[in-house]
Design brief:
Blueprint lengths: L2 H10 L3 H6 L5 H13 L11 H5 L15 H11 L4 H29 L1 H4 L5 H14 L13 H6 L2 H14 L2 H17 L3 H10 L1 H6 L7 H4 L16
Length: about 240
């Protein structure tokens, strides 16, 4: 990040518009916010608060914990347990990957289009669509080399249904192997941008969740690094 861009960001942090809307928040800032909210019990949003607060593992007896990354296998297990037919289970195993990806595409797109009036108060619609496209790339749904190229007329007349169709076409053209590598690269770049002390504070705040769900609280690929953060160079520098 060059000095002029850093200066602009520092100036923006004193702008009420940024403080209220959050459209200029970095990943490192978000991690600090989530950690602070958890430690000070100031997080009413269930998306960023501890799982143990909602599932209460100490007062409930869970016999199975499913994970989205294993949705085909875990979904089949649950369906079999509750007596769903083998044909339905086979159909799930065959189609679940594309179904979940398509759900992620449509869910990512419909929200911003629904907020369009508010979005336009802070950034241009062209910028909003480019950010939305980048989000789909960062989620591993569209290859990073597939660009969103729209004319001014297309931007102004764009509907959510049309944008979903464009995204679906791009997903169909994307290589699954490259998308998987891309997701890992995004994760690595994101966490590398966070100072190590903040990353450790985040880990400690949510350590019980990591253990409960069977995740390594300190994966070497994220924590085996220097204290200083790295400047985003591929994905997050475009925001």
């Amino acid at each position: 990040m060059n000095n002029s861009k850093q200066s602009n960001r520092k100036e923006a942090k004193h702008n009420n518009d940024t403080a209220l809307v959050g459209h200029d928040v970095t990943f490192a800032e978000f991690v600090r916010f989530v950690t602070y909210s958890e430690l000070h019990k100031e997080s009413p949003n269930p998306h960023i608060s501890s799982v143990k607060k909602h599932c209460r593992p100490c007062s409930s007896f869970f016999t199975f914990i499913g994970k989205l990354e294993n949705i085909a296998e875990d979904g089949s297990y649950v369906m079999n347990k509750i007596g769903i037919s083998k044909n339905a289970i086979t159909a799930l195993e065959t189609n679940i990957s594309n179904l979940t990806k398509d759900d992620a595409i449509t869910d990512s797109i419909r929200g911003p289009f629904g907020w369009k009036k508010d979005v336009l108060k802070h950034i241009t619609w062209d910028k909003a669509l480019q950010r939305l496209w980048l989000k789909l790339q960062m989620r591993g749904l569209i290859e990073k080399d597939i660009k969103l190229e729209l004319s001014n007329q297309q931007i102004m007349s764009m509907t959510s249904d049309r944008f979903i169709d464009i995204a679906r076409e791009a997903y169909a053209r994307s290589d699954p192997g490259k998308l998987k590598q891309q997701s890992k690269a995004v994760q690595k770049e994101a966490f590398a941008s966070v100072p190590l002390k903040d990353l450790k504070a985040f880990r400690d705040a949510f350590k019980d969740d990591f253990i409960l769900l069977g995740y390594d609280p300190s994966p070497k690929e994220l924590y085996d690094r220097s204290e200083n953060p790295a400047e985003p160079s591929v994905y997050f520098n475009k925001l």
